[in-house]
């Protein structure tokens, strides 16, 4: 994962669809079995906006933009059951979408709207997926592919999540290289409110405490 180096007035964020907690646990188990050091650092997700450095002062504008994107989006179904790889271009094994890919594509284009605060180009064409292993030995990538072939995930996407990257210096006791990702805010499609159970599920995936606030309220401080 390429993490941009922010300057003193910036932070690094990403926008993604978080997996339900029971599916996230399955993905983490595969990454751990493959020896992926990011297994406990990167919450399992479908990326909509890759790691991006933004001015801290622009975060309110970013959140308004994402709130508007979510309010104009209808829930859609996703099915993940297709193992793929980006080898030899990139040492990645992933679980791909059998359904929901077009909806994800439309959503990520709205997130990156050239008129909005998150306008940016992509290094590679958008390809929605959930990473099962990244930058490990070939035999471990093969193991992740075998384990991933047993996974089938069906769920309805009802919200998008804004993640913030925490540098290692902000994570006492951690030994990871890239730091951790935490949910900064979650935005419900159609402008609906989040339930206590739904917010708790996000906390289980990311380690962020649950809250019973509206989904457009930050879960942790940005």
TrEMBL record:
Keyword Ligase recorded: yes
Keywords: Ligase
Ligase recorded as keyword: yes
InterPro entries cross-referenced by the UniProt entry: 2H_phosphoesterase_YjcG-like, Cyclic_Pdiesterase
GO MF annotation list: ligase activity
Name used for this protein in its record: Putative 2'-5' RNA ligase
